[in-house]
């Protein structure tokens, strides 16, 4: 028994000595000792010219653009205080550019935090109802006013004679429009089409509930049926950025215009859009994707009522807190564009246009340094809002792998760049969609990696 106690004491002494040595090593690490602190990696990246707009948890995130994001887009690099970040090479960090999370706008809104902060009391916004005299009875009057004013300031959409319907992002409004436009007692589901490359969410959202009201019928260029149809016109288009018009010219069609990117940081504003159903969202207009607010401008009162009914059944309205926050932000954008009241700070659209223009310049420079990739070219047009003459500056880059690379998504994944492949948009796998709206350090890594790649 005495021998056992003696042995146990020796084991404890050795264990204590080893733990003390480890603690000393962590506490007095030098350049050759892996550090367990976030500051080491942050400092290293800063030395290499990378800036950080968010907290340390934001270096690589698993953020979703919409609920449909596929499993393959969830590949991520995890930063943990339990790991030793100094052993990582900067180029081994995974950049997830699969989704269009608009984090590039963070720095602008941080500078205007005080004027755009909304404070509400616990007793406010208890009721379901906002304005019972409005077709969209759960829509806050302040948001109606902010939306109407912003469209008038920018000149990108007609609001006179329209009913405004608010939704939980434009995705819900899209589904509400399909519900409103599909005959309830049709002999077969309503065909839904869009010209390829089309937004990858359209097929998923159209068929998700396997509704008998409507079905995804594919590429509008290939739709030749004499049956009734709904055509989705996204302009500027997601993913390729081009201005779009309807493709199917049949007399049995109904159009939905998705104008999420028809704002002056992405495209020249030529005329106020004047269509029967127009969809917009704060996620791409101001960058506030997390607020989940979108709106539709609808000419026909009965269609607006049916869309409202869908949202009423689906979610019993839309969060008033989000609406009030969105109204505050949209008013701030309009204020920043009001030259009479404008302070020395640049307007939101001036800031975001310059940022997009600079990013596109750097991306084209990076692509031009290699023969592996190509990007689309856009015609120059004069914007009625800003007076600038420029080509499209899309929120996504429609990148093509040239030569022998047939699967561009897989090729870029080998270089730790996660994108969304062309097959999800009804196009060739030689194409990928890359978000241009990420944080600065991610975009910088992208423009450094592309020219350095080999087949």
From TrEMBL:
GO molecular function: carbon-sulfur lyase activity; transaminase activity
Domain spans labelled Alliinase C-terminal: 95-453
Key word Lyase present: no
InterPro entries assigned to the protein according to its UniProt record, in alphabetical order: Alliinase_C (IPR006948), Alliinase_N_sf (IPR037029), Ethylene_sulfur-biosynth (IPR050478), PyrdxlP-dep_Trfase (IPR015424), PyrdxlP-dep_Trfase_major (IPR015421), PyrdxlP-dep_Trfase_small (IPR015422)
Pfam families noted in UniProt: Alliinase_C
Record keywords, A-Z: Aminotransferase, Pyridoxal phosphate, Signal, Transferase
Family of the protein in this entry: Belongs to the alliinase family.
Name of the protein in question: Alliinase C-terminal domain-containing protein
